[in-house]
């Protein structure tokens, strides 16, 4: 079978190689991949900035979708022909995360999805919603589950909440869609007016261009009668945290998801004095994935935003496109 390997760091060094097709063990399922999608973590992994001590070679990409083509003799959950996605952490099916579960990530601890076939324990898969294509479903395991975890599992989202979203990458766009179908008021930031207009088409209520309004935290307060927002999906990290703390309502919730804005300083007293609930979000469990898929099935019009689909042979170009930050939503690689 064909697969991509990180043999040495750098997009230009991503190697297309031939491997033997894996055979499922007794409790394993063989999945033929039809699509995989990129996350910022994958770009960092390929470039060597996510974990410079990563054990190589490694197949990248945590997110993929395909169909079951063979099952081990003890498998009871799946049959040939089932459409499935592997979960991000193969060992986190339910309950709280721990160090052992956190060391079972695809495209990090284990080979990822940028390959034609993969074997997985039968407990490490979820059923794809019937209304989604393979390309759409491939966007779910990391970005969508992260957004669901942030808003619903951690944030206990309510319909009358106002939600602040940063940027228009995969997690932020999923969070925008989830908050919108839940009836929430949404505010989204971006440096690109065209992307902001696309966000409006997806249901964003308020738009802030943070290049034009560098004091976007003040803009948020202006839009909320100086009360702030109940929920923030914080993808910038330390570089945007102080403005998020300025923007959040007393007793509000900040889901700490990314580090896109780099280093920065923030005042811990803001967390104390505003009684802010902050929660780090490291994707989510299979149980969260399954609950999210139930919600998606209830809203049959719901469709993940796929910005661009690349052919399998153009995987390096897909990574370069993500590096350019020109995308809105998700980048997908088709696996023929």
Order of helices and strands: EEEHEEHEEHHEHEHEHEHEHEHEHE
Ranges where pLDDT stays below 50 over 5 or more residues in a row are: none
**Percent helix range:** 25-40%
The largest sheet, given as strand count, sense and whether it forms a barrel, is:
7 strands, mixed
Broad CATH class of the largest domain:
Alpha Beta
Work out the number of β strands: 15
The CATH homology group name of the largest domain: Medium-chain alcohol dehydrogenases, catalytic domain
CATH architecture term of the largest domain: Alpha-Beta Complex
Radius of gyration: 20 Å
Principal-axes shape call: globular
Q: Cα distance, first to last residue?
A: 11 Å
Overall structural domain count: 2
Please sum up the structure shown.
The protein is α/β, with parallel strands linked by helices and 336 residues long. Helix content is 29%, strand content 25%. Strands 3, 4, 5, 6, 7, 14 and 15 form a 7-stranded mixed beta sheet that branches.
Give the tags.
single chain, alpha/beta, Quinone Oxidoreductase, Chain A, domain 1, Rossmann fold, 2 domains, seven-stranded mixed sheet, six-stranded parallel sheet, 11 helices, 29% helix
